[in-house]
Amino acid sequence: MWRHPCEDFRISGVQYFSRHKGEVNCCSFSPDCQILLTCSDDGGLYLWHAVRGKLLAKVCGHTGPVKCCVFSKDGHFFASASHDCSVGIWSVTPIERLHTLTGHTRSVETVSFSVDGKWLVSGGWDNTALLWDTQTGIKVREFLGHSAAVQSSFFSTDSQLLATGSWDCTVKVWSLDCDEETVTLEGHQGNVACLCFSTTGMLASGSWDGTVRVWLPKSHECVFVLGGTEQVWVRCVAFSRDGLTLASTAEGDTGHKDSAYGCTFSPSGALLTSGSDQLDLEEEEYKHRKDCKD
């Protein structure tokens, strides 16, 4: 019987990926679970063999901290967002920079591929989100409406909707059909630092107000609120591929010596990876699943 590569990953306790020279801001698995991509305040992008933990390559090209990194859904490309105000689109084989996207006037904090791979969105401290054609590197649209920095972004699984989260405490859901109205989701009392759509159409948002909110965007409805008992900064949210499990990382999360910044599920859902500012990356087996109900 065929087994996914991740299912053969045996971990004793915690495995450390400790070649970073600065805070680990984000991490992303390739779709086949063979490569783990991480980015750091040291200005580098790191590609690791996900099973053996071996560093495959350190990619340089940004002149400032790299704030966000993500694989395309086909695994052929990855993108990076940097404090140097630029966005990079890179090929995996060979590893080379295909496009340098410039258009932001301040630090770029978030970058996301659409599921179909046609579009890339970036957002940052200039209060804007920009939509790029991934093939040409041409900017095709500006999303204006946030009154503060755009900190997070995510496309729906059908590539028709884009969500952005901001320091203005709101989530905006944009349709790629310009004729449709933009939805504004309100309720957070702090910066919306992270977003994630599930395969079932729910949208999770995490905030520095210490809460994770789960929304039905089309009806503007907040289904439920998680957390909020302590004033911790929620740094990242991630749905498993089947949409049944939601993970989050926050300031003071256990397992790290310091705050946990990023988390992502492996494609099989067997592993959950998180990164922190202790200059390493921890990867541990995810054993407990909690169903998210509509």
Automatic annotation (TrEMBL):
Q: Which InterPro entries match?
A: WD40/YVTN_repeat-like_dom_sf, WD40_PAC1, WD40_repeat_CS, WD40_repeat_dom_sf, WD40_rpt
Q: Which UniProt keywords apply?
A: Repeat, WD repeat
Gene3D superfamilies in the record, alphabetically?
A: YVTN repeat-like/Quinoprotein amine dehydrogenase (2.130.10.10)
Please indicate which superkingdom the organism of origin belongs to: Eukaryota
Looking at the Swiss-Prot or TrEMBL record, what is one Pfam family this protein matches? WD40
User: Could you give one GO CC term from the UniProt record?
Assistant: nucleus
Enumerate the WD repeat regions by residue range.
Answer: 17-58, 59-100, 101-142, 143-184, 185-215
Q: What is this protein called?
A: WD repeat-containing protein 38
